Amino acid sequence: MSLLLNEEQTLLKDSAKSFTDENTDLEAMREKRSRSRIAEINKDLWQKIIELGWTAIPFSEEYGGLGLGYAELGIVMEELGRGLVDVPLFSNIVLAGSVIDVAGSQEQKKQLLPKIIDGSTFISLAYQEGARHAPYDVSSALEPDPKGFVLNGKKQLVLDGGSANHLIVVARSSGKKNDRGGLSLVIVDAQQEGVSVKNNLLLDSRRVANIEFRNVIVSTDNVIGGIGESADTLDKIYTRAAVALSAEMLGGAQRAFDITLEYLKVREQFGAKIGSFQGLKHRASRWFCEVELSKSIVLKALRAIDSDDPEQKRLAHACKARTSSTYHLSGIEGVQMHGGIGVTDEHDIGLYMKRARVTELLLGDAAYHADQFAKLSGY
Known about the structure:
Layout: H1 7-23, H2 26-32, H3 43-52, H4 70-82, H5 89-103, H6 106-118, E1 123-126, E2 141-145, E3 148-159, E4 166-172, E5 183-189, E6 195-201, E7 207-218, E8 223-224, H7 231-266, E9 268-269, E10 272-273, H8 278-306, H9 312-338, H10 349-359, H11 366-376
Parallel strand pairs: 1-4
Antiparallel strand pairs: 2-3, 3-7, 4-5, 5-8, 6-7, 9-10
Helix pairs in contact: 1-4, 4-7, 5-6, 5-7, 7-8, 7-9, 7-10, 8-9, 9-10, 9-11
């Protein structure tokens, strides 16, 4: 498997880099913190993403997509991560869109995928109930009802949930908490009676919502896949999402390194550039190596998804474990090498540290993925 970009992918990377350079607005991230209860998506910026065709990348041409793959989507995610560009590509396309693409019926795909691609419909995936990622830790109940099903439960950290027209909810239709069996996926209108949404921002200004469902009626037409048979689908979605998120994290880690390297070249202390100090050279060298290793595993994992490699799940765990550690290191080293200015709100390096802290926990931290990788490797 080649770990080099082909000509078309190189052109896409150049385009995504230009877009990121033009639309990076870190000051807006600082301003959002004063409006933490308002779920705001930059619609003009999102429309630009749609016009560039990036929302169509992973979907079949039959439904209005481009029929490309995660190798191409990962290129875009990496560049957006480099600039901390505030668009809901991950929540709307990678998470929710993938559920429809993987497990939706033909009717659901024809109805929803074109609308997701053109931006006329926005969907978020409500999957998490605890403070940390636990795929089968689901208590939200889906029970039979004369009108179809009734949904009750609470979800935390629903990415861009406050902006969604519809929600795809992971619910338990049978079994006990933490059982792999008995999980179902249903589509819920976000404005439906019984749906309560509370918006918030995470440390890195990423939009999330806590959502409660009280006796929400779900028709049988809005069930995705078979009742109680969604564990395999979710495994596939989490695999794709972990790798796509890793690509975004790689872009942020690279940018944090570049910012810090430039600072080491210009900051003087004791009559010399601090980049000439041996101790900082060693630390920067280690950091560089970690970023380069992350590039390789991210690209390999992305291509494993596209080729439907039997090892893709194990690679995804290795990928997310590696990039979580690398981005964590990038936040620490970036701030420490900048010294006092690194912890001020005015300096951009602190924003990358905050993004690192949030993304390393999304979909499981390094310890979680290392443990899963070990189990799949027979340890």
